[in-house]
Amino acid sequence: MTEKGVGVKPAEGKLGILLVGLGAVSTTFVAGVEAIKRGLEHPTGSLTQMGTIRLGKRTEGRSPKIKDFVPLAALDDIVFGAWDIFSDNAFDAAMKAGVLEKDLLNQVSEQLASLKPMAAVFEQNYVKRLTGENIKTGKNKMELAELLIEDIAEFKADNGCDRLVMVWAASTEIFLEASLVHNSLEAFEKGLYDSDPAIAPSMIYAYAALKSRVPFANGAPNLSVDIPAMLELADKIGVPICGKDFKTGQTLIKTIIAPGLKARMLGLHGWYSTNILGNRDGEVLDDPESFKTKEESKLSVLEQILQPEVHPELYEGFSHVVRINYYPPRGDNKEGWDNIDIFGWLGYKMQIKIDFLCRDSILAAPLVLDLALFLDLAQRAEMKGIQEWLSFYFKSPQTAPELYPEHDLFIQLKKLKNTLRHMMGEELITHLGLEYYD
User: Fold this and answer.
1) Domains of the chain from N-terminus onward
2) I need a surface site. Which of 63, 108, 167, 225 has the fewest CB within 10 A?
3) Residue 322 buriedness (CB in 10 A; 0-12 / 13-18 / 19+)
4) Per-residue buried b or exposed e for 75-106, using 16+ beta carbons within 10 Å of the residue's own CB
5) Residue 263: Cβ-neighbour burial (10 angstroms; 0-12, 13-18, 19+)
6) What is the rounded distance in angstroms from the CA atom of residue 161 to the CA atom of residue 155?
7) Could you give the CA distance from residue 82 to residue 102 in angstroms, rounded to a whole number?
8) Is 204 within 8 Å of 55 (Cβ atoms)?
9) Do residues 73 and 17 lie in contact, with contact meaning Cβ atoms separated by under 8 Å?
10) Residue 333 falls in which region: left (phi positive, over 0), alpha (psi -120 to 50) or beta
11) DSSP 8-state class, residue 62
12) pTM assigned to the model
């Protein structure tokens, strides 16, 4: 962690954002940034662009925008690159994804059409519902990693970038548990040469990023950088990492509602969640092995917020069920239903029902922007390894091995803002407030 008030290097020159996957989330993100740069839309949902941060006492009235407080890269200095298993440029991919209106896409068509994906590292065994033609080949997984490292270096040189960040915005891979090949960098690199089946494509991207001194954010529930080998490499090279799984629809709501129930000491009998979605993400999650990876991420939230071991009379043995159903007519417009069975004073039962008709990629796109800008900031502040202060953006936040993750959205936001204050030499805010009444 950086010492309080240690200077952060300025955000000079171009920042390249390398996206793994050029589907609905990435094209919505890129098109959105291009539209915002041209004054066509506002960056709604982006903490880095619209959020403010209180400094000092409430009586001081100091609440600048975050982007005016910390030295973030300007949107005009961002350059995009991507890999995808399909060869469609970003404009064609965005039209196929159907998230944004054609009128908006046509206004940024030139910029989108110029973004053509590099050939991807992909193996269908890890994402069984997808096939593609824009795929790298190599004699082993180490050679594939080296090809990605070459892509990264060429992209940086060709686009005149001073710094890079990589964000995984591709599909959820099949469920994998950490094994011996993940336990050390030496074992992992041997596994790359041996094409060990426990090394998924997302891990190859993460390895290539870290070897290239490029910060890595994992927007899916895949292990990726959440293994000892990657922690060792990130520490050795001095690169910040974060993950896992963008917190967008139903889990975002859970991390808002559940802390409220716990704060008021209201009990929980059960929480039933079901989703319908029809985009590529829904198609991938229709495979039971990929769904298992997502389910693990989504199920962990309530246990860790409510802490039934601390409050057994309120939360012990509560039922938590998560379902995801692929329904093509819905496209990117996901619908999440929640039935929450709670109880209050004297054990009297009550219910909360939520029907959240959301747009998955609309919620995810600003997260990609914030993570890229904050990881670049962390790199310039010489922060390395797991960036737990970015838990705010993830369903399954990555933490040090001995720590449980903090899922409460409001605690996560306090942690994020206090980290920014810490970096810039401002006093941390505890909300104690006794000084106002002395």
Assistant:
1) 14-246+361-423 (3.40.50.720), 250-357 (3.30.360.10)
2) 63
3) buried
4) bebbbbbbbbbbbbbbbbbbbebebbeeebbe
5) exposed
6) 8
7) 22
8) no
9) no
10) beta
11) B
12) 0.94
Helix (H) or strand (E) holding 94: helix 90-97
415 vs 32, 183, 408, 412, 421, CA distance in Å? 27, 29, 11, 5, 10
pLDDT grade, residue 1 (50/70/90)?
A: very low
Specify burial of residue 283 (Cβ count, 10 A radius: 0-12, 13-18, 19+).
middle
DSSP state of 328: G
Question: Rg (Cα) of the chain, in Å, rounded?
Answer: 22
Phi, psi of 101 (to 5 degrees): -70, 145
CA distance 404 to 223: 16
Judge contact between 367 and 251, C-beta under 8 A: no
Q: Could you give the CA distance from residue 225 to residue 235 in angstroms, rounded to a whole number?
A: 12
Q: Which residue has the tokens 């839309």?
A: 41
Cα–Cα distance, 67 to 158 (Å, whole number): 28
Give pLDDT tens digits for 17-59.
999 999 999 999 999 999 999 999 999 999 999 999 999 999 9
